[in-house]
Amino acid sequence: MAYFFFIDESGTDRQDSLYEVLCGVAIKDSDLWNIVSQLKTIELQLFGIRYSGHDREIKGRKFLKKKVFKQAALEEPIPEGERTQLSKECIVNGSQATPRHMIALSQSKLEYVRKLLELCSQFRIKIFATISTEPIRETDDEADGLLRRDYVYAFERMYYYLEDKKNDEQGIIVFDELEKSKSHVLISQLENYFKRTSKGRQRSGLVIPEPFFVHSDLTTGIQIADIVAYIISWGLRLKGMTKPGRAELNEFVELIKPLRYLTTRDIRDIPEMKIWSVTYVK
User: For 194, which of 156, 175, 209, 214 could close a Cys bridge (C-beta 3.0–4.6 Å)?
Assistant: First the structure.
């Protein structure tokens, strides 16, 4: 048995994002196709057509931006059948969309995220995330081939999760595709970490060091990681995180909280220290 860890980032554009998030979602190999199939069905039920296409992609910054919440709130929830029809018309003929079409589409987008997170809970998907502010990138010297600290923290918690399974399950890392040069750099850094550090060599027994790179618009697991990362970046606030979150995301924050994983380890002089799979790195 294996677990796929689909990994994506949010807030790395360094524009208006308050926190950067490296996020992974763990999906059991035997559950993956069921999850993909059910999400495609939900997509058709809500939009009446595949939303994701040549010029459209299901992403957190598109489905959960402030404008979507504002438009969705302009009218009471539209009955499902009517909302689906209006959403489809809006997608197919966007240039002729009326304000009510936009309201319906916005409500469908929020409902899609709601159902996606409920599906994650149903299949016991776990999330792993490292939250950081910009200085973590400025103080880490990536030029020397070292893996960034946020990656190290995330892989540590993924390893603990697999270790607790005690059935020799292995983790397969799947990244959102980067520019070719960046992919080569990341592969080199991962190789240095998993082969040339003692902790990395230990963790490579459960986490396969060679990652896969996939197109996010073609891979449901990456889409899930993207949406969770966005919610964490803009909505979840842990101890020490002083920048304000968006209140309209609170409902979705409450849906991702149970997806976190909690374990304990003896760390230095602290016996059975609690370690959450989602952590803030100062």
Answer: 209
Number of neighbours of residue 198 by Cβ within 10 angstroms: 7
pLDDT bin (cut points 50, 70, 90) of residue 14 is low
Handedness of CA 205, 209, 282, 256 (dihedral sign): negative
Q: Are 99 and 74 in contact (CB under 8 A)?
A: yes
Task: State residue 66 phi and psi, 5-degree precision.
Answer: -55, -40
State the Cα–Cα distance between residues 178 and 185, nearest whole angstrom: 10
Domain chopping of the chain, boundaries: 2-281
Highest mean pLDDT range out of 8-22, 29-43, 177-191, 205-219?
29-43
Alpha carbon dihedral 81, 87, 88, 92, in 10-degree steps, equals 160
- Which pTM was predicted? 0.92
Determine the 3-state secondary structure of 132 from DSSP. Answer: strand
Does residue 244 carry a pLDDT above 50?
Answer: yes
Local structure of residue 266 (DSSP, 8 states): E
How much is the pLDDT for 139?
Answer: 44
Identity of the amino acid at 150 = D
Spatial separation of the C-alpha atoms in residues 116 and 167, rounded to whole Å:
28
CA distances from 252 to 11, 36, 234, 260, 280 (A): 18, 20, 11, 13, 19
- C-alpha angle 87-235-9 in degrees, rounded to nearest 5: 80
Residue 16: pLDDT above 90? no
Helix (H, G, I), strand (E, B) or coil at 17: coil
Task: Say what the alpha-carbon torsion angle 189, 195, 196, 198 is, to the nearest 10 degrees.
Answer: 120
Residue 274: strand, helix, or coil: strand
CA distance 221 to 101: 29
pLDDT for residue 20? 92
C-alpha–C-alpha distance, residues 37 and 176, integer Å: 20
Beta strands in 13-117 (DSSP E): 20-28
